[in-house]
Recover the amino acids of this structure.
């Protein structure tokens, strides 16, 4: 490993169009970089594959949340109505299973929704108001019209000179250093 | 926008992928929607409506305070009509909320990309409507201070709520609905909050929007997670559209009153909910087009499509009215027939026939192209539908209770001025919250529009984008 | 312009979320603890009475039976408070000039009952009948504690519905023979275990937990 500026988070390239961003991201991935990210003002489907975005854990977590919500809802009703304080109401049995369906269902949806949301917030590392990429002045366009790509300094292949040369080769508008 | 231009918009075909005017760029949608909220501020119409809404919110505060001091005796609620206006309002508001979820969740799953321009404010409308609705059963409790007894928790009374009761199902259904709608709204809002953060001119604006955006930086990994989770949340919200009003309908259907004990209620309520919800979304769309200059993105094509959806559900509602009448005749059940006759010719006849006229007869005018293209016409018809749906809820809640099996327990319902104050106050709260939303939040999801431009491949090339 | 928040804001934002969660959870915990606290149940709070009557002296030292004063306990809903005449039955003979007993003498002379303050105050929507409980072998001590040890009377049980139901669901843990109803002796262990099923049977004790039993 070469000596690096400890205050350098990485290098960022700005692109004018989503197409050039995708193209460059593909090249950087081919060059073997792992720790890089693309920033765009809307979702670009092509980037998922290039960046190896793996989100299948979110639906699994939502399923687990939904199942535990349903189990909780049903056990709660069973326990309250048949175990804790059994009370005959309207001549129905203590465990009136058809009558327990709506709340079980609602708790399933609530459990799945809350765990899906929690998973998403975890994926975002929300809230994360400070991030080195914001140090680049032009980066405020990333939520509006700009397309950016940042290679992080802790990537094993990162070298401030060579990586900059690589980014300069691409059809980027400009390349910036990202201070920490 | 002049009428002629709207007419030309109407030539959009439903199969036409483009929902945006030609020549829009990432920059132009971002700019015009962000500036839209600031442009709103100066409008006289905005200021006047905010003032009027504030006055009505004040009325609501007075009415609720008076209610808490004096008790629900200030309303017309009295045996046998113990539910009265508060529950009418509850059912009506919950119904209005349904269109937002329908648009944002079901249409997302069905890949109806025209929803992109209208889903945000429809979701906001849902949230506010659920808020208005959820207030009603709580303040209608004799002792509102112990509303938390509805929540099952181990308590010093060793008591649990009655889980076999549809009123409990309702609490869970509305609670889940409100929560999921809020999460869905929030997840969609984050990227647009980042845009507002980055465009904010004041320090306060940066902090305010920045706090909500929570450091959103448009990372491709985040976008990817967002896409996955958004579809899951939509999938979860989809059954809620059907289930929430079904459960509200079960409040009625699982009772044994002659007018209520009916299997048709759940689907009938859901159709009515989407009908009134779309009517409300259309009202707001027309206002946003005419008063707040969002006509570029909420086009005549949106109005047309929403009118089609609304009219289709309206036909389902009409069918439900017919089936209800048929089943009553077919059952040959004297108390049921008594209630029906009371609707057709008795004390409830003025309300019943108003419902038919408002919900079934007048709206048919919207099948005509000129009527759909006339904002005033759409607006007025939608208001009439909302009035009709409110009256329908009134007919179900009040006339059902006042015609029991026993003639000795028949009594008419007489609303008081406080009932109307509450109704008006809720409308004020609804408008007030929506006006604040229009003023401070992106009415149209900017990132979805940018994505639409990108996908339509019609976006202008490099140099124009970053000008 | 570009970097709006400082480096510390990430930690701050996360801490504030944790703080919010802690606040909400501790708020719920506090409310939860409060519902069984003496602020709500009024346990152990002494009520100022017109005369500082000592159950310890009368019941503990002098060994008066509860029913000597609370004479209606066996046949009416209310246990009943002693009439001034019951007090004066003794106090015309002993402590007849004590200052502390002046309200009793005034009441006797003016023929006006003494206003004692209720120590065990059930909500008005609860129907409670002393006679049935006493007749079915529910000892005074089960609800009122060891009154003969109290110089000033106080409520020692929470009187919450949860507490009522504990006995209504498990009467066998509390039932005692009728002749020991007013006794404060500990009634537990082997003897109770042996006798309880028989007592339940003899007294026809049912687990009454229907709403209308108490809320009529």
């Amino acid at each position: 490993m070469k000596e690096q500026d400890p205050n350098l988070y990485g290098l960022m390239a700005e692109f004018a169009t989503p197409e050039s961003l995708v193209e460059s991201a593909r090249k950087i991935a081919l060059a073997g970089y792992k720790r890089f990210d693309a920033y765009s003002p809307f979702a670009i489907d092509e980037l998922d594959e290039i960046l190896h975005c793996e989100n299948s854990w979110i639906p699994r977590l939502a399923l687990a949340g939904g199942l535990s919500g349903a189990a909780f809802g049903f056990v709660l009703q069973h326990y309250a109505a048949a175990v804790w304080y059994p009370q005959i109401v309207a001549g129905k049995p203590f465990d009136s299973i058809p009558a327990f369906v709506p709340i079980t269902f609602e708790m399933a949806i609530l459990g799945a929704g809350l765990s899906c949301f929690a998973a998403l917030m975890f994926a975002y590392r929300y809230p994360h108001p400070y991030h080195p990429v914001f140090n680049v002045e032009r980066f405020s366009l990333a939520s509006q019209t700009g397309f950016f790509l940042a290679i992080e300094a802790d990537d094993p292949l990162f070298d401030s000179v060579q990586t900059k040369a690589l980014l300069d080769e691409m059809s980027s508008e400009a390349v910036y250093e990202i201070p920490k | 926008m002049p009428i002629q231009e709207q007419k030309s918009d109407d030539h959009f075909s439903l199969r036409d992928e483009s929902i945006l005017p030609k020549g829009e760029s990432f920059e132009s949608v971002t700019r015009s929607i962000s500036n839209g909220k600031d442009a709103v501020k100066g409008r006289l119409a905005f200021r006047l409506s905010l003032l009027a809404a504030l006055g009505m919110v004040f009325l609501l505060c007075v009415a609720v305070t008076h209610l808490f001091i004096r008790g629900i005796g200030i309303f017309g609620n009295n045996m046998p009509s113990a539910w009265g206006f508060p529950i009418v309002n509850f059912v009506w508001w919950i119904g209005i909320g349904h269109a937002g979820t329908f648009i944002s969740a079901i249409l997302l799953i069905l890949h109806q990309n025209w929803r992109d321009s209208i889903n945000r404010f429809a979701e906001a409308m849902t949230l506010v409507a659920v808020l208005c609705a959820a207030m009603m059963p709580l303040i209608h409790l004799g002792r509102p201070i112990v509303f938390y007894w509805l929540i099952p928790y181990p308590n010093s009374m060793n008591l649990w709520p009655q889980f076999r009761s549809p009123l409990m199902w309702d609490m869970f259904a509305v609670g889940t609905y409100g929560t999921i709608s809020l999460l869905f709204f929030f997840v969609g809002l984050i990227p647009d909050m980042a845009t507002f953060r980055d465009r904010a001119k004041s320090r306060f604006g940066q902090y305010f929007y920045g706090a909500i955006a929570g450091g959103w930086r448009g990372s491709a990994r985040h976008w990817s997670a967002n896409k996955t989770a958004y579809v899951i949340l939509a999938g979860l919200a989809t059954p809620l559209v059907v289930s929430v009003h079904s459960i509200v309908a079960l409040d009625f259907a699982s009772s044994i009153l002659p007018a209520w004990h009916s299997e048709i209620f759940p689907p009938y309520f859901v159709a009515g909910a989407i009908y009134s919800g779309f009517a409300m979304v259309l009202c707001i769309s027309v206002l946003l087009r005419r008063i707040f200059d969002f006509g570029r993105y909420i086009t005549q094509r949106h109005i047309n499509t929403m009118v089609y959806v609304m009219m289709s559900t309206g036909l389902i509602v009409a069918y439900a009215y017919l089936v209800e009448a048929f089943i009553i005749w077919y059952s040959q059940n004297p108390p049921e027939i008594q209630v029906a006759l009371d609707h057709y010719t008795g004390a409830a006849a003025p309300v019943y026939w108003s419902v038919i006229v408002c919900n079934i007869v007048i709206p048919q005018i919207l099948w005509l192209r000129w009527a759909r293209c006339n904002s005033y016409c759409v607006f007025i018809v939608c208001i009439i539908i909302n009035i009709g749906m409110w009256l329908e809820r009134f007919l179900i809640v009040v006339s059902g209770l006042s015609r029991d099996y026993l003639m000795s327990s028949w009594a008419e319902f007489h609303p008081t001025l406080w009932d109307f104050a509450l109704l008006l106050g809720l409308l004020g709260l609804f408008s007030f919250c929506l006006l604040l939303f229009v003023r401070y939040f992106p009415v149209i999801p900017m990132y979805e529009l940018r994505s639409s431009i990108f996908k339509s491949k019609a976006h202008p090339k490099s140099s124009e984008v970053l000008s | 312009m570009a970097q709006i928040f400082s480096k510390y804001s990430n930690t701050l934002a996360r801490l504030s979320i944790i703080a919010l969660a802690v606040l909400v959870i501790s708020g719920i915990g506090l409310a939860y603890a409060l519902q069984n606290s003496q602020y709500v149940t009024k346990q152990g709070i002494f009520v100022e009475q017109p005369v500082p009557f000592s159950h310890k002296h009368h019941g503990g030292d002098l060994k008066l039976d509860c029913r000597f004063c609370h004479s209606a306990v066996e046949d009416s809903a209310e246990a009943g408070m002693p009439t001034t005449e019951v007090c004066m039955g003794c106090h015309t003979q002993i402590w007849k000039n004590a200052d502390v007993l002046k309200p009793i003498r005034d009441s006797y002379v003016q023929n006006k009952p003494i206003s004692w303050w209720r120590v065990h105050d059930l909500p008005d929507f609860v129907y409670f009948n002393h006679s049935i409980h006493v007749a079915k072998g529910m000892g005074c001590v089960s609800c009122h504690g060891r009154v003969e040890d109290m110089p000033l009377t106080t409520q020692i049980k929470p009187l919450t519905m949860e507490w009522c139901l504990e006995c209504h669901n498990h009467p066998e843990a509390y039932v005692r023979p009728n002749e020991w109803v007013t006794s404060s002796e500990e009634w537990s262990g082997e003897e109770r275990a042996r006798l309880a099923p028989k007592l339940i049977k003899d007294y026809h004790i049912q687990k009454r937990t229907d709403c209308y039993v108490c809320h009529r």
